[in-house]
Amino acid sequence: MIVEDDLDIAEMLDAYFRSQGYEVLTVNWGEDGVRACQTQPPDLVILDIRLPDIDGFEVARRLRTARKTRDIPIIFLTEKRARGDRLKGLELQADDYITKPFDVQELRLRVRNVLQRARRGSLTNTVTGLPEGGLVDEALNFGLERSETALLVISLKNLNRFREVYGFVASDDLLRAVAMMIRDAVQDQNGLDEFVGHLTATDFLVITTQAQAADLRERIGKRLEQSLDYFYSDKDRDAGMFENKELRIEISELAVASLQDRDLPHLKAELNQFCR
Question: CA-to-CA distance for 93 and 76, rounded, in angstroms?
């Protein structure tokens, strides 16, 4: 995302980064940048400081203090060269600070470097500590090489409604508890070689064997279904606050043997069908 009120610079950056294969969203006002980041968090924000409404420092402060956007990398791109401005940018945990005029090739390399650092730092889920991203891809690739592999997708449904009622802290506690119960169920079945990770924030993946899959699916399902009721009060549920939106678990199973001719992108597309 580019937040820049100079239309010539904004259009030049938009065209340049699109030509480099990036998806780009450009806004010209600070408030629009904050709203857009809350709606669909980008992988990185290039942020001017001089904006028509709120300044870039305020945009960065709001992004850093909101749970949904606090980890988005920020590169300041600004005419402000004073040491105090640079220090203020660093205090707001900016990932880089570039002054105008700038070399667009240098900016491209800095964007690449920041994105690479962000990807390396997001290999485990910040709430549950379970692997995600590249670590899941590695495990799936390994699973594709074994003919007896089975995949279980455990989906926690209606967490958004739970979060609306009880807040982010309670929903994070719930996710940690679900992750722990899945992990414990795998370990109780002597699943030392099984993999447990995240496909999405609320969809978990277990890579196991076809011989173990059915028993493990039943064990995980029972453990989770018996526990979900403890996370909200009977009073709230009886009052209809969760009508048709109660927490529930869906477990889907996929045998890799049926996907031997498919590569990782095809397998992930198949798994994503279970996450909807």
Answer: 11
Structural contact between residues 75 and 95, judged by C-beta atoms closer than 8 angstroms: yes
Pairing of strands 45-47, 149-157: unpaired
Spatial distance between the Cα atoms of 133 and 198, rounded to a whole number of angstroms: 8
The full DSSP string for 58-73 is HHHHHHHHSTTTTT--
Q: What are the chain's domains?
A: 2-120 (3.40.50.2300), 134-274 (3.30.70.270)
Per the DSSP assignment, residues forming a β-bridge with 252 are 153
Instruction: Quote the CA–CA distance of 132 and 146 in Å, as a whole number.
Output: 21
Give the tens place of pLDDT for each residue, 132-168.
Answer: 888 899 899 888 888 788 999 999 999 988 988 888 8
pTM of the predicted model as reported, rounded to 2 decimal places: 0.59
pLDDT of residue 240: 83
Rounded CA gap, 253 and 210, in Å? 10
Distance CA 42, CA 239 (A): 38
At 248, is the pLDDT very low, low, confident or very high (cuts 50, 70, 90)? very high
> DSSP class of residue 131?
B
Residues 4-62: pLDDT tens digits?
A: 999 999 999 999 999 999 999 999 999 999 999 998 899 999 999 999 999 999 999 99
- Token pair listed for 154: 């455990």
- Give the residue ranges of DSSP H helices in the chain: 7-19, 30-39, 56-65, 83-91, 104-120, 134-144, 159-166, 168-188, 210-227, 234-238, 264-274
Contact residues for 218 (Cβ-Cβ < 8 A; gap 6+): none
Cβ neighbours around 217 below 10 Å, total: 19
pLDDT of 219 strictly over 90: yes
Give CA 257 to chain center in angstroms: 29
